[in-house]
């Protein structure tokens, strides 16, 4: 049976992961002022993206930690390590290797999802593209340029993640 705090956090994570980012942004930017909490568009965007992706990241890390066989923990405790030492020196380094790909994917997805914040009047790359394309009627050229900018900014993250995965491989010598 889960403890009450654990049940509450599990429920919160499920609600955040189970609702669209767009709805969360609307609730934060347009809904919170109804109860007296006013945020500018930039802060609402950070809060919305932060909560949304924190929920996903927490599940990535939970899954990574749970993927480590229980025998690893039992062996380190049998060797005299404390629970904290076991977590720090045995479990987390192995779990980190497991979570690199999903965390990288989430980082790149969050970068691309930042275009959604334009719905709360936050002017960002996609919003600028839309405004320029409407005024110049160059949807294809500006669209390709905008996509290229997103790709150019997110590609180094995927290269870094691949390098980190290779560096942390189990069979790395």
Write up this protein.
The chain is mainly alpha-helical and 173 residues long. It has a single domain, classed as MetI-like (MetI-like fold, Orthogonal Bundle), CATH 1.10.3720.10. It is 77% helix and 0% strand. It has seven helices and no strands. The chain has helices at residues 4-18, 21-31, 41-66, 70-78, 83-113, 125-136, 139-167. The longest helix has 31 residues, at 83-113. The radius of gyration is 21 Å and the shape is flat. The chain starts with a helix and ends in a 6-residue tail after the last helix.
Q: Figure out the total of helices.
A: 7
The CATH class is identified as Mainly Alpha
Q: Indicate the overall shape.
A: flat
Task: Tell me the number of strands.
Answer: 0
Architecture (CATH level 2) name = Orthogonal Bundle
CATH superfamily: MetI-like
Low-confidence stretches: none
Report, as a whole number of angstroms, the end-to-end distance.
43 Å
């Amino acid at each position: 049976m889960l403890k009450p705090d654990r049940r509450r956090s599990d429920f919160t994570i499920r609600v955040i992961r189970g609702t669209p980012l767009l709805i969360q942004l609307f609730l934060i930017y347009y809904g919170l002022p109804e109860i007296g909490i006013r945020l500018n568009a930039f802060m609402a965007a950070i809060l919305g993206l932060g909560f949304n992706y924190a929920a996903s990241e927490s599940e990535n890390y939970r899954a990574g930690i749970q993927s480590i066989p229980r025998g690893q923990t039992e062996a380190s405790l049998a060797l005299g390590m404390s629970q904290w030492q076991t977590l720090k020196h045995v479990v987390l380094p192995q779990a980190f290797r497991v979570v690199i790909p999903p965390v990288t994917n989430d980082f790149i997805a969050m970068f691309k999802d930042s275009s959604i914040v334009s719905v709360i009047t936050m002017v960002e790359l996609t919003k600028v593209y839309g405004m320029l394309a409407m005024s110049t009627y160059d949807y294809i050229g500006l669209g390709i340029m905008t996509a290229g900018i997103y790709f150019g900014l997110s590609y180094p993250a995927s290269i870094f993640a691949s390098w980190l995965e290779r560096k942390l491989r189990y069979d790395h010598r």
